[in-house]
Design brief:
This protein is α+β, with helices and mostly antiparallel strands. The chain contains seven helices and eight strands.
Length: 301
């Protein structure tokens, strides 16, 4: 339900007093949220990915929302980013989920300069400048929780020249149709070395990388949470971002608390706000012939 264009959305969607910075970000995101709301039903019905929404986010500079200003981004902190994602989710929660995953990861890299220093500056710059999206690809049907020792069936095998060959399949790779980079968790296969788990940077345009459209959700149908298929993908030596023993903490673990938890929660809060608004609009406009007035006038409603 679009809100009046003359109404300040801050009064409806921000409970705390707004800073000038928050008002600026809301002003940037609010027209997009309204536009996304107009498109959402068609994409949900067709289970089609809203590429035009991602293009609009890039044009507005929001794919660099959490990217530091030194890399060309907007430099939003966790709270500011979460509020923007919430507003986008009011318009289209599927788009917000894909957008939010990207914001969370870029935010984590921005918060921890020591996280993947060989690649992070380039990825952050590309996110802000080119709209290059990224997301983690971790889940597999057979693996279970990596935090409890789950080992990926996806493998990265060390080659004689120091590079890697990666094969496997990942599920629930949200935003897959729009991603430029995948952060893939794989089991490292290397001669005379114990089993280890690593995160690898895999560009979407590398040979052997493909997306299989498998997402058939009852909700968030246009989130593009499809399967990532890796068929003997050649990777350079520096594609390995980090490694650890099975069951050991992921180096991004602590960063996921402020970024991952807040961003994902914001998607569903925005979705709930949209559902609330839809209910209010229906109650205010539904006039049964036997009643002769909106059902909102009924005390029980």
């Amino acid at each position: 339900m679009p809100v009046s264009a003359t109404e300040n959305p801050l009064r409806r969607y921000l409970a705390l007093p707004a800073t000038t910075r928050q008002e600026q970000l809301f002003t940037l995101a609010w027209p997009l949220a309204q536009r996304f709301a107009e498109r959402a039903a068609a994409h949900d019905h067709a289970a089609s990915f809203a590429h035009e929404n991602i293009a609009d986010l890039h044009t507005a500079g929001l794919l660099g929302l959490a990217v530091p200003q030194s890399y060309g981004g907007l430099g939003a902190n966790e709270a500011e980013a979460a509020q923007v994602v919430e507003l986008v989710a009011w318009g289209d929660a599927s788009t917000a989920l894909a957008f939010g995953m990207h914001v969370s990861i870029t935010g984590q890299m921005a918060t921890a300069p020591t996280l993947w220093p060989e690649h992070a500056p380039r990825m952050l710059t590309e996110a802000a400048r080119d709209g290059a999206m990224l997301n983690a690809a971790q889940a597999e049907p057979e693996m279970g929780s990596p935090a409890h020792g789950g080992v990926p069936m996806t493998t990265a095998t060390r080659q004689a020249d120091g590079g890697w060959r990666m094969s496997g399949r990942k599920v629930f790779t949200t935003g897959a149709p729009a991603l430029r980079y995948f952060l893939v968790m794989a089991t490292i296969v290397e001669d005379a070395q114990p089993a280890r788990v690593g995160n690898f940077l895999v560009p979407a345009d590398f040979p052997g990388v493909s997306i299989e459209q498998t997402w058939q959700g009852l909700a968030l149908r246009s989130s593009g949470s499809d399967d990532l298929v890796l068929d003997d993908v050649p990777l350079p030596a520096d594609a390995l971002l980090d490694e650890r023993a099975p069951g050991a903490p992921d180096p991004r673990g602590a960063l996921g608390l402020p970024w991952g938890a807040l961003i994902v929660s914001s998607v569903y809060i925005g979705l709930a706000l949209a559902a609330r608004d839809e209910c209010v609009e229906f109650a205010a406009s539904r006039v049964p012939s036997g009643l002769g007035r909106p059902i909102a006038t009924i005390p029980s409603v």
